[in-house]
Amino acid sequence: MAPMKKTDKKARDIASWAFNVVTSVGIIMVNKALMATYGFSFATTLTGMHFVTTTLMTIVLRALGYIQPSHLPLSELLKFVLFANLSIVGMNVSLMWNSVGFYQIAKLCMIPVSCLLEVIFDKIRYSRDTKLSILVVLVGVAVCTVTDVSINAKGLIAATVAVWSTALQQYYVNLFQRKYSLGSFNLLGHTAPVQAASLLILGPFCDLWLTNKRVDKFDYNFTSVFFIVLSCTIAVGTNLSQFICIGRFTAVTFQVLGHMKTIFVLILGFTLFGREGLNLHVVLGMILAVMGMVWYGNASSKPGGKERRSYSLPIDRSQKHGSDQVNGKA
Fold first, then answer.
1. Burial status of residue 3 (CB atoms within 10 A of its CB: 0-12, 13-18, 19 or more)
2. Residues with Cβ < 8 Å from 71, sequence gap 6 or more?
3. pTM score, two decimals?
4. Which of 129, 145, 226, 295 is the most buried (most CB within 10 A)?
């Protein structure tokens, strides 16, 4: 029975990760078409729309009885939403104020920052092979994506806020699911409505500042509205799969494997939008990154590869449903 359970867990892990990759790559492609082709450049407001559709999904599932009542303290909820919204705005501002090269370097910094959070708060110890495998992933992705690198003071501040807020948001996704025994649907049910409301209020002003354009003045037509609706629909899966993956793995593993999506996006971009920029060093970078991800998976799963040092997490005993449960195991 034990081997069967282990096999079953692996199958669930692979399915969860595949779900995240497919939805994440899909939404990137749809948003690229929406923004580049149809000129809908209101990224923060669009993210607010994403959380509206996610909220609607959780309301329907709760009404159908698939989501059981749960509790997340208001202080924890507000802390999470603060970092989550800072992450969204910070990434958009970082992209605006920085070169593409420095923006990509900043994104790569999320892995060491996430590692630092786990070492400090969760007392995680990484083996030498695990650390080296992470380094190989970072080098590979850097070779693929980093081009011109120029740094300015305000861009550096924006990138720092974006990196730390994103790392903290992802850390809290994992922490809250463990600490309060919240399933992925339950945690989304708590956070999505507050994020939707706050981003829909702040989003138009933030987008006006970033683009000098008003979202209410956009020329909405059938095709652009179709892509907005499609983006919001896929976003439900993207938001859910992120919570599932971070809950099943950790924020660091999510970041490391997350670069597989970067590789897929690059390949799809070259396939669908032309092969400009595709050269030998990009291909070598892709190969190096994938090898690093495979190495990380093997190294971190071995005894001592990634382990806690005498640490126990306080659990909210009032919660009776497990980490990935929605009336049973997900």
1. exposed
2. 180, 316, 318, 319
3. 0.83
4. 145
CA atoms of 221 and 206, how far apart (whole Å) = 23
CA atoms of 244 and 311, how far apart (whole Å): 23
Three-state secondary-structure class, residue 329: strand
pLDDT digits (tens, 9 = 90+) for 24-45: 888 988 998 898 888 999 999 9
Sign of CA dihedral 64, 66, 68, 70: negative
Largest CA distance in the chain: 61
Give the C-alpha separation, 258 to 109, whole Å: 13
In 3D, which of 189, 162, 160, 184 has the Cα closest to residue 173?
184
d(CA 223, CA 30): 12
CB distance 204 to 214 below 8 Å = yes
Place of tokens 């500042």: 209
| Tokens (6 digits) for 149 | 């690198």
Containing H/E element for 46? helix 43-63
Interatomic CA distance for residues 25 and 20, integer angstroms: 8
Over residues 60-97, the pLDDT tens digits come to 999 988 888 899 999 999 999 999 999 999 998 988 88
